[in-house]
Write a structure and sequence with these properties.
single chain; alpha/beta; TIM Barrel; 10-stranded parallel sheet; two-stranded antiparallel ribbon
Length: 320
């Protein structure tokens, strides 16, 4: 979808916008279904990248304790607990610039994926930059989705990271697409970018071929010690507008309400679900940031009459 179309959508009256996004949502999804995903940091801290939002970067003093790659036993135990709590997707993140075929850490990741994939959930990993060989091997091991966010617009990207380029992100996404894994790709708002940057991000996502099957929208969790530590919280109506535009531009993608939910009221989250969000991360922690507790999430979903998705396939054919 072109930027001018996205701009026109975004800047119309809020109720008109979310009415349109709700209609699009109901054409492609069961409106009451919300997928719950669990996210585990399998290797924390010590990353060589300088992403300005990230407490795991070795460039900043954030007080985060560096940890090595977790054991298979710890990871599979966490996956089993997540499944028991209702997760249908288990996501594993490692604080690396990337992984390369033939290295010990890549072989260990493949072994972890083989074990977790036997538990009957979707398996998503985010390991930084990968190429075609790594992508094919990850898919063969059992990875169903690869997360690699573009974060923001190409124009603003150099303001938040200097150790890799926007084009580097697109190259990894292309390798994932070529392998047949589904793409999980979204961004972060609240980093000092403009609303136009946010819309450019949606434009780029909608033009990927194929478009991402999952689009996480993260609100910055300002982490002490990072360059963005003093950024104010995102205005909830700006978030709702972006969720709605993402739903219209990417009708078949899961739009995931991701990091930052601890700063969003229950009413704000309800508006996001109405506007088209149909997936959340749940559990007490997202990599290094706090997340609402499982029972709090369940209570909210019940109050809204939303159902926890029980299978991995929730999309329904268009009614058109």
């Amino acid at each position: 979808m072109r930027f001018d179309q996205l701009h026109a959508l975004y800047h119309q009256p809020l109720f008109d916008l979310i009415s349109q996004s709700r209609a699009v949502h109901l054409e492609h999804w069961r409106g009451e279904d919300v997928q719950r995903c669990s996210l585990l940091s399998i290797k924390t801290g010590g990353c060589s990248e300088d992403c300005a939002y990230c407490a795991q970067s070795s460039h900043y003093s954030t007080g985060l304790e560096r940890e090595e790659l977790l054991s298979i036993q710890k990871i599979t135990g966490a996956a089993q607990r997540a499944r028991a709590q209702g997760a249908t997707r288990f996501c594993m993140g490692a604080a690396w610039r990337g992984v390369r075929d033939g290295t010990e850490k890549f072989e260990r990741v493949l072994e972890i994926v083989r074990e977790v994939s036997q538990l009957g959930m979707e398996v998503c990993v985010t390991l930084g930059e990968i190429g075609p060989v790594e992508a094919r091997k990850l898919k063969a091991a059992g990875v169903t989705a690869y997360n690699h966010n573009i974060d923001t617009s190409p124009e603003f990207y150099s303001e938040i990271v200097s150790t890799h380029s926007f084009e580097d992100r697109l190259n990894t996404i292309a390798a994932v697409q070529e392998s047949g894994m589904s793409v999980c790709c979204g961004g972060i708002i609240g980093m000092g970018e403009s609303e136009n940057d946010r819309l450019r991000m949606i434009e780029i996502l909608s033009e990927l071929d194929p478009p991402p099957q999952s689009v996480p929208i993260n609100c910055l969790m300002a982490m002490p010690g990072t360059p963005l530590a003093d950024q104010p919280p995102v205005d909830v109506f700006e978030l709702v507008r972006l969720i709605a535009v993402a739903r219209i531009a990417l009708p078949k993608a899961r739009v995931r309400l991701a990091a930052g939910r601890t700063r969003i009221s229950r009413e704000g989250q309800a508006l996001c679900f109405f506007a088209g969000a149909n997936s959340i991360f749940f559990g007490d922690k997202l990599l290094t940031a706090k997340n609402p507790a499982v029972d709090v999430d369940l209570a909210l979903l019940r109050e809204l009459g939303l159902e926890v998705e029980e299978g991995v396939e929730a999309a329904v054919p268009s009614r058109n």
